[in-house]
Amino acid sequence: MTDTLLRRATPDDLDAVAPLFDAYRRFYSQPGDVPRARAFLRERMDNGESVVLVAQRDGDIVGFTQLYPIFSSVRTARTWLLNDLFVAEGARRHGVAKALLDGAADFAREQGAAGLMLETTRDNAPARALYRAAGWHEDDTQWYSVNV
What we know:
Strand content: 25-35%
Number of helices: 4
CATH topology: Aminopeptidase
Structural class: alpha+beta
Protein name: Acetyltransferase, GNAT family
Shape: globular
Radius of gyration: 15 Å
Number of strands: 7
CATH architecture: 3-Layer(aba) Sandwich
Number of domains: 1
Low-confidence stretches: none
GO molecular function, one term: acyltransferase activity, transferring groups other than amino-acyl groups
Keywords: Acyltransferase, Transferase
Pfam families: Acetyltransf_1
InterPro entries: Acyl_CoA_acyltransferase (IPR016181), Bact_Acetyltransf (IPR050832), GNAT_dom (IPR000182)
Mean pLDDT: 91
Strand order of the largest sheet: 1-2-3-4-5-7-6
Helix content: 25-40%
Largest sheet: 7 strands, mixed
């Protein structure tokens, strides 16, 4: 069984992550545009506006998650929004998505964040089941959160 290696993406990873990000966007009915996906990721990374974690199996990047920093006024602390998560079709059902969720929680915890949250659509049953199985808690909206 191949292990999944998680790490923070660097600009050198953009050519490998951009097609995955494009596939993620197409899942949400956006037109395919790999150069646009790459430019968007590059701008977020260059400006320090997001953190991209990648999952590697057998040396290939097979999944990613993108986290955005936000702040909780009530908690007077930073939290993170897990905005994007995608695993290549051939790497699904091998624990990659769960590893990315756990890696995102570990990252938030290491950063001293008060929490980590995400949102998904009500009709995305596979994702919702994954989040619940990974220990995330659904509220009355579409938000899930995990204590870090």
